[in-house]
Amino acid sequence: MKLQSKYVGFALRLLLAKARYRSRLRLQSFEIAMEKDVELHIDRKSTVECGHRAYLRRGTVVDARDGSVLKIGRFVFVNRGCSLVARYAIEIGDETLLGEYVTIYDHNHNYDNPATGELRNQGYRGKPVSIGRNVWIGSHVFIGAGVSVGDNSVIGAHTVVTRSIPANSLVYGKTELVMKPRGMNQP
């Protein structure tokens, strides 16, 4: 297989990551762009899967812990400074676009047992996150545990998403989540 010229420069970085993580890093092809300064952390029980022609910009953090599976689909674009942190599961569908500094966490700290003492010792709780196909997520969006985002949806910049979004939706709001069918009354 011959790589397109723009992916040749990324191939060495991918080969080094593949050598470090072995079967924990699954690549659909070597036509995946991982710019320098992408932080990749995969513990011994977890896996990260990257689809064909996924593109990860510099400053992105991809972190899989505690036996989680983090899947990045085909033709997914992850802009600079994004954080994808999984302790359960995160799946990002094909052809999805993430703006700058998007944060996706499938977990949160436990904090409700004062007898345990420090918060850092109380562990985590969470649920898998699923981002559909052909979704556009604007810059500085936070998506939390248990959220499912339907196909063909758009999430406006600076939105905090803590509940699921149906397919073909436009979602935005800094204080209250506003959901509308896509294509109608766009702001």
Name its key features:
about 190 residues; mainly beta; UDP N-Acetylglucosamine Acyltransferase, domain 1; eight-stranded mixed sheet
According to CATH, the homologous superfamily is Hexapeptide repeat proteins
Principal-axis shape equals globular
- Helix proportion range: under 10%
| Pattern of helices and strands | HEEEEEEEEEEEEEEEEEEEEEE
Based on CA atoms alone, the radius of gyration comes out at: 17 Å
* Low-pLDDT sequence parts: none
The neighbouring-strand order within the major sheet is 2-5-8-11-16-19-21-22
Q: How many angstroms does the end-to-end distance come to?
A: 45 Å
CATH fold topology: UDP N-Acetylglucosamine Acyltransferase, domain 1
Task: Characterize the main sheet.
Answer: 8 strands, mixed
Rounded average pLDDT: 92
Q: Structural class of the helix and strand makeup?
A: mainly beta
Q: In the CATH classification, which architecture applies?
A: 3 Solenoid
Percent strand equals 25-35%
How many strand elements? 22
The first-level CATH class is given as: Mainly Beta
Q: How many separate domains?
A: 1
The helix tally amounts to: 1
